[in-house]
Amino acid sequence: MSHPENATEFLKDQAKAKWHDETLWFVRDKRDRISKTIPEWEQLRELASQIKDNVLANLGSYLEDFERNAQKNGIIVHWAEDGEEHNRIVLEILQKQNCKAIVKSKSILTEECHLNPYLEKYGIEVVDTDLGERIVQFLNQPPSHIVLPAIHLKKGEISELFHEKLHTEKGNEDPTYLTQAARIHLREKFLGAKVAITGVNFGIAETGEFVVCTNEGNADMGVHLADVHIACMGIEKILPRRKDLGVFLRLLARSATGQPVTNYNSHFRSPSPGKEIHIILVDNGRTAQLAREKFKNSLKCIRCGACMNTCPIYRRSGGFSYGSTVPGPIGSILSPGLDMKKYSTLPFASTLCGSCSDVCPVKINIHEQLYEWRQEITKTHGEFGKGLSMKLASGIFNSPLAYKISGSLMRSALKALPDSLIYHPLNTWGKSRNLPETPKETFQQWYQKNRS
Amino acid sequence: MVSEEPIMSSREKILSAIKGISIEPKALPEIPDFHLTGELVEQFIRSIIGNKGEVMSRVEFQSWIGTAHFSKIISLSKTFEDLSNLALPEDPHELEDLGLAILEGQFGVAENGAIWLEDPNLGLRALPFITEHLVIVLERKNLVETMHQGYDRIGSAHSGFGVFIAGPSKTADIEQSLVIGAHGAKSLRVVLL
Amino acid sequence: MKPDSPHIALFIPCYVDQFYPKVGIASLELLEKLGCKVTYPQGQTCCGQPLANAGYERDTVGTTRHFIELFREFDYVVAPSGSCVLHVKEHSPSVPGLEKEQAELHHKVFELTEFITDILQVEKLDGKFPHRVGFHASCHGQRGLRLASSSELNQTPFNKARKLLENLEGLEWVELSRTDECCGFGGTFAVTEEALSIRMGKDRLEDHLSHKTEILTGGDMSCIMHLQGIATRNNQNLKFLHIAEILNQAIS
């Protein structure tokens, strides 16, 4: 299904759509307020952007530094060209450990690689331990938001689900009660897992350490109880220096949820005695995106989700309307790089309002890239029915005479025809909107009469 | 030219793909020394409260611990060594029913309440997470302004694991309602000496 | 008017020409009242924005060439539309053989309110407009041309349109809940994402109605056309005027 169809479907439940919009707006508003308590906020964004520009310009050497330093610290480093290879590496580590059940904290990368279904195929139980992710996992759904995975669900739905899966009281919708039930359920999983998987927020070239941020503490609960920690990291997550974390940790949580910092920010440098840390560096389309001059800086993204919270489209169409692992504005510029045909409607799911670019903590010009993707997509698929009518319009706009004729034709058509017969775009325009009243003369005509 | 292409590892493929892309050089910026306006202790306390933690004095802590009933307490804090009634086990799984952990923080960041701890402060890495309640002891003189001063303080020290803890375990994944005590410690008390 | 006054070309967007001639007239009269020498060059067409935003920028070279040839001789080009001005400056394709002229022209094109505040350097307008006015900030004007501070950024608040409006006697400025949320027009978006476009428009209107806006104004007639279309369909009691119409009425 295309984005417009999905959005139309989402908007049918008007009350829920309104709630979704208001809830995410609340998060964005919190972000606005906290960002304005930092006088150097805009300077931090600029610094973060410049640091990431430097990373993209030196990615190869930083990755080599990172690998060397991580290995020096006793971390085992793997490289994966694509999702398939990433999954295979994870499986091999699990098989070596004879491990049949793992816990996993939030990692959008493993979603992107479809790790869960892959491992399940081999009889391995994967338990997502972030509360929101566990909820959507119970429903066999992907996350609808990269920071707030279950934001599309109401507590009544979660209560129902927990009643079925965790035998909570029927009808008890109290978030504290439901969270407590999940705590007990997941504690057992944490205690039983020999291998834990996490994502990575930042990898530091200079030291070979990597940083994982959570509020729930689920990443740490998993890895410190397990014998083996597998960290999955997109190659673009590199930062050059440890001190760069000062800039990024100041921006990340404030941008994401409007809080000053996540409650747990763990820096992994070496495994505990007798334990193992593996890190998998994953490409999966990133080097291809890096080679696209107009789109390469989409790789600066730190996955804060601020562009989703601010996007008037995302708030009113929900994460699933995008049909991509990363939804929202940033997803709409990343996904076409992976499969332009499949995601061809995403760059059009925007009014190019520019709010995403203004909230972005690393100053990605998201709305400009949406515009640029449109130019690319129309080259390869001249479709959408837009092709023909737009070419036609182009001919009209090039020629003043043709424009004048078509304009007056259109205006007289509007006068003469009932709304339902006016050609397609105007027909769609008129479904829930009136057309402007047609004036008796154009400005050109008025000007000729009054000023020439 | 060799007609047969050698089989490249994924590592080589990724690195050579990157090498093949020409990107205009961009200098790595220096990070200015940003400061925080206002009083450090006050700001730190406000931050911890905002993160849903609590800040207490030594006296307040002593009166609280006197009324609290924890059957299992591990204290790695020199100041409150005598409160420990359990030795640090070798296997963190044995901490499953730990009621209280008392740890020493190295320094605290006033702008956001984040407190830095490393392996030597933790005993076992799982400790501050698996414990039901957490107390971190911190000296006032070890407060810094922002994360920038925080990382200056860490410098290039090497410890296998380091963590900024800023509050108790929390989640808002159900309708954005804040719930304290998701998986980790259900409370954080900071004793400011 | 001094004989050596700069010569200003009035650039009237195609849909304004066709549907809202009164906005063109108000813009012209307003600039004349402010002492400008204004000409409306004949033969104007659409600037090409609908095509470019739909992904066919490459098909607008002809349109752009026409635009440059028509306007290059003037000292300034002023349009009552932030959106069309942004397009001309940022999204019109480079025209072979006219690169220099095109670059020069881009420095001379202005949206109406920024022309009045920045070039004419009008600090305040004397006039009277005793109404409750709600301002709809068009995204292209606001975040594109930076005609006002954006709520996302940590910057000193400013708003060029507000500066001109708020000194008018009797005018009450409506404070909205969401000062700069998009109305959902978005060019072809209004048609290709019809359901979203309507929802966004309704939400903007609700914000204005709940804050008792009497007249909804803005710098882009395209947003207003969309909002007015929805309001009219739903019999909502709101009046709509372009900012040029308000200013022109107020200072007469």
UniProtKB/TrEMBL annotation, chain A:
Transmembrane segments: none
GO terms under biological process: lactate metabolic process
The organism's place on the tree of life at top rank: Bacteria
Keywords recorded for this protein, A-Z: 4Fe-4S, Electron transport, Iron, Iron-sulfur, Metal-binding, Repeat, Transport
UniProt key word Electron transport: yes
Gene Ontology MF term list: 4 iron, 4 sulfur cluster binding; metal ion binding
Ranges where the 4Fe-4S ferredoxin-type domain occurs: 291-312
Pfam families assigned: Fer4_8 (PF13183), LUD_dom (PF02589)
The protein, known as: Lactate utilization protein
Organism the protein comes from: Algoriphagus lacus
TrEMBL record, chain C:
Gene Ontology CC terms, in alphabetical order: cytosol
Residue ranges constituting the Cysteine-rich domain according to the UniProt record: 8-88, 133-228
GO molecular function: oxidoreductase activity
Lineage top rank: taxon: Bacteria
Residues spanning the membrane: none
Protein's name in the database: (Fe-S)-binding protein
